[in-house]
Amino acid sequence: MQGLDLLWLLLPVAAYSGYQIGRRGSERSSGERFSRFSQTYFKGLNYLLNEQPDKALEVFLKIAELDADTFETQLAVGNLFRRRGETDRAIRLHQDLYSRPKLSSEQRTIALLELGEDYMKAGLLDRAEALYTDLLAIERHAPSALRHLISIYQQERDWKRAIEMALRLRRGGVEGMEAVIAQFHCEMADAARAAGDPEAARRHATDALAAHPRSARAHMVLGKIARGLGEAETAIRHYEKMAEIDPDFLPEILAELIRLYEQRGDTQRAEAFLDLMMQRDRGVAALLARSAMIERTRGGSEAVAFLAEQLEHRPSVRGVLRVLDLSFPEDAEDPPEAVPLIRDLLRRLLERKAAYRCSRCGFSPRAMHWQCPSCKSWGTTKPVHGLSGD
Ligand SMILES: [Zn+2]
What we know:
Elements: H1 3-27, H2 32-49, H3 53-66, H4 71-83, H5 87-98, H6 105-122, H7 125-135, H8 142-155, H9 159-171, H10 177-194, H11 198-211, H12 216-228, H13 232-245, H14 250-263, H15 267-280, H16 285-298, H17 300-313, H18 317-327, H19 338-351, E1 356-358, E2 381-383
Antiparallel strand pairs: 1-2
This protein binds zinc ion (ZN).
């Protein structure tokens, strides 16, 4: 743990304990205990400032011993145990704290909330679930309990219950739940597709759209289902809708969409769609697909001229590589000496770049995830655009 975090955590404890001990000190007309306390506290502070959190913890544990009756002190120590990964100690401490006879009901609830955090950190999801379900009864803590329960059901991939909890949060006035609810329905749709049940998948994806009509993912799933069932026109409509809602996801479906247009011989519709997307897409996926169409219908040199003009507005490594490949095909005999070298360099440049990035936490996975594996946000991971992006 960072020393500074620890410091933030303990400052209020130190202040409160100092106040408590100081008060008792004056009651007993003795400054001695307060002075001993202050010395210990500043010694701990010193360790923290020297980035020695383990020694700092020892010191603060001594303070906690001196001040074993104070609820807040014990709370901070339990919190420290948990943050250091010592969940067993944190759980014991919070259970002990919770069972003290003289607590107010507010304090008892706080101890319970801490215990819930311990269970979550320790991966004891069953116990955490039982605890938060009990807490739902206390209206003031219901939103927090619901959020924890959603997090538990997500980890257990129990999407039905995750949806129930999210709906309760929404009924309680929490905004922005629609998008997350749609993601949960889409998870069920993907599971049904993987299990070879496209009709169930379609029901779940339709539920997703009902919950959140502008769910890009729901249209993508519906497109894939329709494509699998050979319903080309329906698939095209869902893919087009997905790209219209969020052009950032275009690279995810473009290859399939182009094949569907080709299957149906819909060249004009394909051209119109790509022209529209080129205006809206921040990447070069639409541009490259459009140049491939030009190459097929009007030849390579027309495609190069088109790309050269477009790349002026949106420079892109992938675009330059395409120009190179069109100008000097890989199987051409006797290309200029520099061509294979430049091609190799451009390819290596692209390989090293992250393909996706989470806009919330910056995590950059190689594959697409609807829920960020790092910060657990939904729908924040997207294909990377820009100079060396898609
Ligand atoms: Zn993230």
